[in-house]
Structures are given as C-alpha cells and as structure tokens.
Amino acid sequence: MADKYRICVPTVARKEVLREMHDAPSSGHFCVDRTYIRAAQDFTWKSLRQDVEWFVSTCGPCQRNKAYTARARGIPNPLEAPDGRWQAVALDLVSLAESAAGYDAAVVFTNMFTKQIFCAPVRMKGTTAEKVAELFILHVFRTQGLPKVLLSDRDSRRQVYFRLLGATL
After folding, report:
1. What is the pTM of this model?
2. What CATH number does residue 101 fall under?
3. Looking at the 3D structure of the chain, how many domains does it have?
4. Is the same domain home to 100 and 151?
5. Where are the alpha helices (DSSP H) in the chain?
6. The domain containing residue 115 runs over which residues?
7. CA distance 68 to 20
8. Do 100 and 145 fall within a single domain?
9. What is the mean pLDDT of the chain?
10. From CA 27, how far away is CA 20, in angstroms rounded?
11. β-sheet bridge partners, residue 122
12. For residue 79, is it within any domain?
C-alpha cells in the first residue's frame, strides 16, 4: 500500500465512498475490518476507521441479517409442581403509572399452586431488597408462612434477605 497513491476524500463525498465500499453488490456488506481494508486501499481521510465503524453499525441490511452471536440458552427446565398452597411463591416487581399517592410500581407475590396473589404498592426509586423482604414478611409470611421455593428474577440483592429467612432460591 505504501507504493500506491491514495485519494484524500473531502467530507461531502465520504458517505458516497463508504456506500460504494460497503453497499455495492460487489462489496457484499462486509464487516468493519474488511470494509476498512477495502476503503483504505484507494482512499484516505483522518477519521476513516471511525467513519467505517459508524457506517457499518448503522447499515440496515447488516443489522437485520447479522448472525446471532449470543450463547445458546439450552432447553428450559420446567418447574416442579408445588406440593400445596404457598409452598412455591413467585416474586415480581411490576412498574405502573404513578398513582395519586406517588406509587409507581407494585411488588407481586404469586402462589404458584393456586395463582393467588398479594400485591404491595411501592415507589420504584428507592425500593431496596430489604424493603421487598419487609413486604414479603408483612403480606405473605405472616399469613401463609415461609414457602419452600421462592422464584425471582435472580436479582442477587433480593436473594440475600430471603436466604436469611431460609428460603431456597
């Protein structure tokens, strides 16, 4: 590349050059590295690499047809059916429209056997794991006892307080 002259592209024409290097049928919508190498062979400007990265990341066909790179999640395991009422409880924090009292969320405790629920209004900001544990004790534990299983969204902050109660998560 050192013995070949390259064209310094003005700002107004850069997008057209990138479109030709990336979108043209002969280009095949290559990744950032291959598009950059192809453009750098004939053209140059100060922010060439950053402009290629931006152009490829905003290319619609590339985003739609991009390969899924996340690890396979595996086969989901079904949960065992609970033995009785309030032996398995699901916990969820649901955001809602703000009420007149200023609450904008609810903590929902669901009995996995009968689907009975207990709801407690909360303010999303400032709702800590300690507060959720207090609500659990106030609404569920004092009337139904401690469940064998507590299903959660795996928020580690919430799990700590329920482990102290002896629940399996």
Report:
1. 0.51
2. 3.30.420.10
3. 2
4. yes
5. 14-22, 32-42, 48-57, 60-65, 129-136, 142-144, 156-165
6. 88-165
7. 26
8. yes
9. 83
10. 8
11. 105
12. no
Q: Please identify which residue in the block is written with the tokens 């106030």.
A: 138
* Cβ atoms within 10 Å, residue 86: 20
Q: Return the closest-CA partner of residue 141 out of 123, 119, 165.
A: 165
Q: Which residue has the tokens 């999303």?
A: 124
What tens digit of pLDDT does each residue of 108-157 get?
999 999 999 999 998 888 787 778 888 888 888 888 888 888 887 755 55
- Rounded CA separation 106/124 (Å): 8
Query: Mean pLDDT, consecutive 10-residue segments, the chain of 169 residues?
Result: 79 92 83 91 93 91 80 78 87 85 89 91 83 85 85 62 57
Assigned domain for 81 exists? no
For residues 110 and 125, the answer to whether their CB atoms sit within 8 Å is no
Number of neighbours of residue 75 by Cβ within 10 angstroms: 6
Give the three-class secondary structure for 38.
helix
Strand, helix or coil at 90? strand
